[in-house]
């Protein structure tokens, strides 16, 4: 199909309109200028509103780009050009692009032919794409760094656990059992800490964690934390560091109501970092209370935090050293968890750091209530004698059963071992003398929750305590709904087990 000239021009104008590309022509000898309809729209005018001119065009160019713009048009006489520049449309600053050349076919009249486009939106999208791409690359690098680091952090304690366990299997121990056992326990606790941190991040990020406020003595809490810090310093061979704790309140007046567990976690994470990175000098921890807000300050004389990392240290998996040759171990979760826990308590965290001088990390927790008496005091450990009572340990793993058996050995309680959900239900139905059930949840045949429901249907007054590795938010509620009176998340301490049982056994 053959089109006439008028049709061709109409189609060309339509294409230019769709593409948002204008077109102008300038005749040098006559100093006449013509704009296409799109050019008028780009500069914010009605179509063919007036006769265009070079002078009017220059008024739209940003003053700082005008000289460059004019020189580029002049250069067009000798070669084709493409430039980007800033211009104004109805007072709004935009970004434009022109591509053009000067036609001199008849060697007599110079004619400037230029394509004109507003590329503001294109550039914004390009910037957003580049930003998203850089963010994706950063996330990928961060993930790779984290996985490599996590592999190291997990394999290190596992190596100790497996290695010392193999040594315990040999006959020639020469009195090394206690030392090896301590190493296994220490490595196991380190491994548990890593797992707990990963679970804690999951709960905090999902906003399923909730504050649990109780009365406690803040000075006593700081004293306990100080003792733990001294042990850590000894393990890190940093006993030479000075560790100072300063309390704003007298011991008898230092009872407040807030989330003790989270405040302990926050302080321990920050102090652990300070000890790890400080080689000489001191570490000071202090607090003050003002208008129901408690503010903590932890100051160290470490190397300080480089400016490039000051906005990153409270992000997850971030460490000042993120390469294979780093000098300090760690998952990069401690300060991130602290930030999330502080935000959960409606608080805020900030820091001041100077290279070769040290770092001060401050955080504040609002809505702290001072009280006159202390509830929730942990009871003094007791020696229990339950020789007239019987407990069923529902546990399919032999090693876990042996641990519970050892924990209960000195209580003289009678023990029945049930290895499946069906076995524990049968035991409770056939032995009226059973006083308590320690129920694992992940049991063969029927799980512990279903077993608890069946037992409660027949023996509603029988106490069931869940002891399970299910430790995420909501798991405790599932246990209680099934009929359990307590929920102990593995691994738990011997004292936790005995305390829980003592509530239901005289």
From TrEMBL:
<keyword id="KW-0597">Phosphoprotein</keyword>
<dbReference type="GO" id="GO:0000155">
    <property type="term" value="F:phosphorelay sensor kinase activity"/>
</dbReference>
<keyword id="KW-0808">Transferase</keyword>
<dbReference type="InterPro" id="IPR036097">
    <property type="entry name" value="HisK_dim/P_sf"/>
</dbReference>
<dbReference type="InterPro" id="IPR013655">
    <property type="entry name" value="PAS_fold_3"/>
</dbReference>
<dbReference type="InterPro" id="IPR001789">
    <property type="entry name" value="Sig_transdc_resp-reg_receiver"/>
</dbReference>
<dbReference type="Pfam" id="PF02518">
    <property type="entry name" value="HATPase_c"/>
</dbReference>
<dbReference type="InterPro" id="IPR004358">
    <property type="entry name" value="Sig_transdc_His_kin-like_C"/>
</dbReference>
<dbReference type="Pfam" id="PF00512">
    <property type="entry name" value="HisKA"/>
</dbReference>
<dbReference type="InterPro" id="IPR035965">
    <property type="entry name" value="PAS-like_dom_sf"/>
</dbReference>
<dbReference type="InterPro" id="IPR000014">
    <property type="entry name" value="PAS"/>
</dbReference>
<protein>
    <recommendedName>
        <fullName>histidine kinase</fullName>
        <ecNumber>2.7.13.3</ecNumber>
    </recommendedName>
</protein>
<dbReference type="Pfam" id="PF00072">
    <property type="entry name" value="Response_reg"/>
</dbReference>
<dbReference type="Pfam" id="PF08447">
    <property type="entry name" value="PAS_3"/>
</dbReference>
<feature type="domain" description="PAS">
    <location>
        <begin position="33"/>
        <end position="80"/>
    </location>
</feature>
<dbReference type="GO" id="GO:0005886">
    <property type="term" value="C:plasma membrane"/>
</dbReference>
<feature type="domain" description="Histidine kinase">
    <location>
        <begin position="149"/>
        <end position="369"/>
    </location>
</feature>
<dbReference type="GO" id="GO:0009927">
    <property type="term" value="F:histidine phosphotransfer kinase activity"/>
</dbReference>
<keyword id="KW-0418">Kinase</keyword>
<dbReference type="InterPro" id="IPR011006">
    <property type="entry name" value="CheY-like_superfamily"/>
</dbReference>
<dbReference type="InterPro" id="IPR003661">
    <property type="entry name" value="HisK_dim/P_dom"/>
</dbReference>
<feature type="domain" description="Response regulatory">
    <location>
        <begin position="390"/>
        <end position="505"/>
    </location>
</feature>
<feature type="modified residue" description="4-aspartylphosphate">
    <location>
        <position position="440"/>
    </location>
</feature>
<dbReference type="InterPro" id="IPR003594">
    <property type="entry name" value="HATPase_dom"/>
</dbReference>
<dbReference type="InterPro" id="IPR005467">
    <property type="entry name" value="His_kinase_dom"/>
</dbReference>
<dbReference type="InterPro" id="IPR036890">
    <property type="entry name" value="HATPase_C_sf"/>
</dbReference>
